[in-house]
Known about the structure:
single chain; 15 helices; three-stranded antiparallel beta sheet
Amino acid sequence: MKGSVRRRRNGDWEYRFDAGQDALTGRRLRPGRSGFKTKKEADQALRKAIAAHEAGRSSRVSHRTVSDFLTEWHQGMRSSLRPSTWVNYRNYLDAYVIPLIGDSRLRDLTPMRLNLLYGHLLEKGRVKRSGGLAPKTVRNVHVMLHRALSDAVRWDLLPRNVAEDASPPRVARKRPSIWTPEQLGEFVRHVEADRFYALWLLVVTTGFRRGELAGLRRGDIDLQHGRVTPSAPRVVVDGRAEESQTKTLSGERTLALDPATLEALRDYVIYWDKERELLGQDTQLLFVWANGRALHPDTITDLFHKHCAAAGLPKIRLHDVRHSYATAALKAGIPPKIISERLGHATAAFTMQTYTHVIPGMDEAAASTVADLILGEADGRASGRSDESKGPETSKEPADLLRFRRSAGSSSSSGGRI
C-alpha cells in the first residue's frame, strides 16, 4: 500500500495513502492527516495508519464469482440451517440471484448493485409468469444475502458486508384475519365428531403451529399432569414432511392443558392404543390415519379449510387460528408474558408487536380500571368526612387560587413581599 508525506504551506507536515476505491461510488480513497511538526512524526503516523487500515481490511483478494461463492456457501450451511430454510435459500439462489448477478465477481458487489437487484425482483422477478415478487419475498432474499456476505467477511473473502448499506423493500405489517371466540367455539362444535377432534381442540386452545401438531408424539402428552410438550415439529421440505427443530428456542416449551382438551386427548389416546394393537402399528406419532400413516402438515391445512366451509365460517388461514387464540387471550386479560410463552415466541415484546391491533382496547380498559381504583378510593375517603371537617384541601375552589392564597398569607407574615 503506497503512501507519502509532504510539507504544507503553513509549515506543518501531512501524510496520505492509497486505500483503494470506495465500493459504492468507485472513487479513489486517500485518507490522511495533517498537523505534524516534523517529517519524522508524519512518517511514523503514516506507517501506523497503513498498518491499522490493513488490519481492518485484511481480506484476501478473491477472484471467485458470486455464483461460485454462494453455491459453496449454501452447501456448507446445510447442517446449521433448518431444512425448510435451507431449501428456501436454494430456491432463492437458483431463481432470483444467480441468474441475475451470478457472473459478477464477488468483490465487485456494491450496495447499489444489490438495490438494482431488489428493484428488478420487485418489478419482474417472477419466474413462471410475468410480474414482480412480493416485497416480503425480496426482503427474504436480502436476509439471505446479508447472512452469506457476513460469512464472506468473517472468512476474509470481503472487506465489508455491502448488504448492510443496501435498501431492501419495506414490508407492510398486515393485521391477521381472526375469528371471534364465538366463532372458535362454533368451529369446535362442528368438528366434535371428527377423528382428529383432539387435534382441532389443541389448535384452538393452545395456538400450536401445524408442524407442531403433525410432529406431536405420544411421549409429548402427559395425561396425568395435563401437560403437552411439542418436541420435534414436522415441516414441509420440497413437498415432503420431515422432522425438524423448533422454530426458536422458545418453541421448546411445556403447556398446561385445559380440562376439555385434556379429556379429548385421553379419549383419543385410548382409541390410538387400540388401533396400534389391532393393526400392529409401531409409530409414536400421535395424529395418524387408521393405517398408521402420518398426518402431513399440508393435509391438516386442507382438512381445516374443508371444515371451515362446511361450518359456514369466514375463510381464514389455519395459522390465523393461532392469531385468534392470542387475540382472545389478550382481550381476556392474560399477561402478554404468559401468552408469549404459550405461543413459543422469542419475547413478549414480539407478541405485543404482532398483536398491536388489540392494544387500543386493552389500553382503554387499563385506563378505566386503574383510574377507578385510584379515584374511587379517593372519593370514598372524601365522602367519609363531614363538611365541617373539610379543610381548604377539599374546597371547591380552584387549586391555583388556593396556592395563591397560601403564598400571599406566608408572604405577608414575612414582610409583605410577594
